[in-house]
Each structure stands twice: as structure tokens, then as C-alpha cells.
Amino acid sequence: MIRTPRGLYGRAGFTTDLRELPRRALLPHEVRLQVLACGLCGTDLHFLRQMQEFTPLGHEVCAQVIQAGSAVTRFAPGQQVVMEDVAMCGVCDACKSGRSDLCRDGCTMQDQPGMADELVAHERMLHGAEGIDPVTAAMTEPLAVAIRCVETLAPDSGKPLAIFGMGAIGLFCAAFAHLRGAGPITMIARHPGTQRNQAAEEAALALGADRALYTQDAGWQEKAGLFDAVILAAPPSMTPVAMKLTAYGGKVLAAGVTFGEDHSALLDINDMVFGKKSLLTSIAEPGLHFPLALSLIRDQRIDVRRIITHRLPLEKAGEIVNLYEKDAPAIKTVILPG
User: pTM here?
Assistant: First the structure.
């Protein structure tokens, strides 16, 4: 074990702080993990742009078990795992009523950063991920989030689908929706010609999208047409635009959040009522669909490597400012402790 584990915290201005962490004692059902890889999430970027207080960074974790609590039965030292950041409890009224998605009593990361040398987790949060490259396995969490979005929206096969946002979640939504038979799939982003969006568009087309449109291009809405289903992996302020592009009887799913001023939107409810349009939401807690996400990654039915553009050691994690506060061909960055 590392003598003094470290963990990364961040706040607005892309200010990062790599801190020494106290080593937590293990409870009976907990394991100690050596983090092998941790993806940088869009939520982490929101923290680094908008959160005024230092916040633990990282929850897209692939790790190796280095110590198991006295009551742990599912995992042993040496096993490679991926981790849910919130796991359902399995015993509350919601879980016992078939609505585990509404569980609010589950296991959490207890304010530990995933971008760390070590962390402690309840065994219920873990899934075995042996035989998968750790950087690739770290994509299990964002892929599971995207699967949840698509399954909640349930777009019809062969019907037009739009996805606002070409970050990791938007790209994985396109990949899973394509696998599920939806389409044609249109990706919608803001800025044409940037290095980031050029890289993202290339990845989107490789993962199953059919085209990309940009809201700063003249006449983009006319080119877009109408869609039977829309996923918003983008700020909530884009919801009215998504509704305008939704066909009669269509559905919009909002999954993007922000901690800035663009968290609200003014909707035309008359248009929604008379157009029989539905607005749904999705959030990634507690974790769902990890077994399916792992299976799709292991069998390479979704090539998650398409979105991994950068890898940084934990000591150099502060360099992410150069990848995301400037125009760079960065989609998904993975932090590598050790």
C-alpha cells in the first residue's frame, strides 16, 4: 500500500489541489481500492468552472482490491473492479417495490475523490472487471449513464433521434441508441470548426451517428427538421430549442445539468400540450446498467476507446486546464494514479 495516499480536489478557475489523505479504517463490508484509472466527467468540469469551494473530483473509477473487510464475500485482494458512485441499498421501500431507481439510502463515495491513489468503498458498489484494460474499464460508469438515458427515453427503432451535446454522455447515447436500432441520429453542438467538436464529430460518426449540426451555423434548424425523440446531454437552457424540434407526440429527455446560470428554461406548455410532447429527466444515481455496460465494453460492441483522447498521471492532473479551457481536441481525459 502507498504510505500516504493522495486525492485531487478542484474549484472554479480550474484550481486543483492534490492533498494527502488520511487512510480510512475498513468497516466489515468495505474494501480498500488502489485506483488504476479515473475518467474526468462533465460534472468534474462544472466543478472546475463554477464551484466556489474545493470539491472531490472523479467517480469514473477502475481499481484493484488491495484489502477486504472481515465480512466481504464477493471480492478479494488482487481483483480488478469498477465502481458505482452511488449504489442502491436493496432494502428500502423503493427498492422492495421495484423502484430501485428511487432509492435514496444507498452506499456513496463518502466525499472521497476517485482521482486518488486509494479509496474505500462498500462491496455493494463494485463490479468485477478482470481482463479489461483499466482505462477502457473506467468508461463503464459514463456508458451506464448513457444507457440509462436511452432506456428511459425509449426511442423507436428507425425513427429520427437528436442528441444535443457531443461530450462523453452524448456520444455514448448515440452509440447505444444506434445499437438499439434508433436513427437516423443527429448530433447537435454549438461551435462548428473547433478542434474539440471536430474530434467529437469524428467519434460520433464512428459510433453510429449519421450527421452533426451546429447551432451557430445559419439555418441549422431548417436542416435539422423534426425528431421523434431528443436527448439533452447539454445545459437545461437548451430545452426550449429541443422542444421546438420535437415532432407531434415526440419525447425529450433532459440529462444535462449545470451549476451556472443556464440551469433554467422557459417552456411553451401550450405547444407541449397541443403537440402531445413529453419531457422526461434522467440522473445517474443510484447506478444502473453496469453489467450491461461492462458486457458491451468487454465484447467491444461499443468501442469506448473512440472517445478517450488524453491520459494524465495524477501529479499532472492540473494540466486539464489546457485541454478544456482552451480549444483542444479533448473529449475524455483519464487520470492515472501511480
Answer: 0.96
| The C-alpha cell that represents 199 in the structure block | 474530434
Nearest alpha-carbon partner for 135 in 312, 320, 285: 312
Residue type, 118: E
3-state secondary structure of 67: strand
Q: What is the pLDDT of residue 260?
A: 78
- Tell me: the pLDDT tens digits for 178-190? 999 999 999 999 9
**Domain encompassing residue 235:** 143-281
The x, y and z cell numbers of residue 2, run together, are: 502507498
Asked if 51 and 259 count as a contact pair (C-beta separation under 8 A), the reply is yes
Q: Are residues 84 and 128 in the same domain?
A: yes
Peptide bond into 113 cis (omega under 30): no
Same domain, 232 and 102: no
Q: Is residue 45 domain-shared with residue 114, that is, in the same domain?
A: yes
**Cell digits of residue 6:** 493522495
CA distance 52 to 127: 33
Q: Total domain count for the chain? A: 2
Would you place residue 262 in the very low, low, confident or very high pLDDT band (cuts 50, 70, 90)?
confident
- Residues 6 or more apart whose Cβ sits within 8 Å of residue 138: 36, 37, 38, 39, 60, 61, 62, 82, 334
Nearest CA to 88 out of 253, 290, 292 is that of 290
Residue 64 counted as domain residue: yes
Q: Are residues 85 and 191 in the same domain?
A: no
Residue 99 within a domain: yes
* Average pLDDT for the chain: 96
Whole-number pLDDT of residue 287: 92
